[in-house]
Amino acid sequence: MEDGKARRRLKAIRTRGAAVLEQARRSIDIVSDGEQTRQHFENKQTVLIRDRYEASVPSVVGAVERKAPVFVEDAKFLRTLTDRQIKWTLPGPMTMVDTLHDGYYGSREKLAWEFATILNQKARELEAAGVDVIQFDEPAFNVFFDEVADWGVATLERACEGLKAETVAHICFGYGIKANNDWKATLGTQRRHYEKSFPLLQRSSIDTISLESHHSNVPLEVVELVRGKRVMLGAIDVANQQIETSEEVAETLRKALEYVDADKLIPSTNCGMAPFPRNVALAKLNALSAGAAVLREELVGAQV
Ligand SMILES: [Zn+2]
């Protein structure tokens, strides 16, 4: 028992330490542990996710409740590894509802409000553990437009209620798995999905909006719709292993400056890079850092 525990602890130190070190080496300002602490559940059922692909997911079999903090120890540990800002990612209420089988509530909205309350408790604990940036992933916002307007943004705001940490809504077209890539191929050259959620988010209490850009066929003028918010802009394609050049990254960011002030622009990846081999993910992180540096120099140069 004790041996197993010690081994797991050692593994955690090695893998998360490596993730933090690789980010620090590349001067990444907001550091995460690479989401190595994602949880697995019992009572799985197969459902259709995002109207797109089937997956085996947890099933709600009774009233949902939060038993014990899940991530707090992991967050505290990450806090000890770096002095930089740290980010923790949680699923948003709508995306949670869409990623499980409900055998109890019979209402997506009702279940979303329950999750929002629980997520808010989790987020407050993470903030107390020293997390600076709390990101809620809401890829479902690019699919269920009516629900986004009815209760999606409202439940997300509930999840963020009272937080002093920076809050982020990450809305993407999914990471590079086949079902997502096939779906993206059907979306044409003008993906206007963000036009539905951004006006609502602009009026919301959420601090930062995270969106896809590079290779995503998203018209950049959608960024104008969240004017005043901080914008985490995806300048790295996660559906393709081709490594971006620093100039490509800089160009994506440069174009966005027409719609967002430079001090509110946070260069990022389109989504997570978990499906990539390590060397690809690290090379893409290099490109992100180098591209941001190119633009930073230009902006500093322009001020002199
Ligand atoms: Zn994403």
From TrEMBL:
<protein>
    <submittedName>
        <fullName>Methionine synthase</fullName>
        <ecNumber>2.1.1.13</ecNumber>
    </submittedName>
</protein>
<keyword id="KW-0479">Metal-binding</keyword>
<dbReference type="GO" id="GO:0032259">
    <property type="term" value="P:methylation"/>
</dbReference>
<dbReference type="InterPro" id="IPR038071">
    <property type="entry name" value="UROD/MetE-like_sf"/>
</dbReference>
<feature type="domain" description="Cobalamin-independent methionine synthase MetE C-terminal/archaeal">
    <location>
        <begin position="13"/>
        <end position="288"/>
    </location>
</feature>
<dbReference type="GO" id="GO:0003871">
    <property type="term" value="F:5-methyltetrahydropteroyltriglutamate-homocysteine S-methyltransferase activity"/>
</dbReference>
<keyword id="KW-0862">Zinc</keyword>
<keyword id="KW-0489">Methyltransferase</keyword>
<dbReference type="GO" id="GO:0008705">
    <property type="term" value="F:methionine synthase activity"/>
</dbReference>
<dbReference type="Pfam" id="PF01717">
    <property type="entry name" value="Meth_synt_2"/>
</dbReference>
<keyword id="KW-0808">Transferase</keyword>
<dbReference type="GO" id="GO:0008270">
    <property type="term" value="F:zinc ion binding"/>
</dbReference>
<dbReference type="InterPro" id="IPR002629">
    <property type="entry name" value="Met_Synth_C/arc"/>
</dbReference>
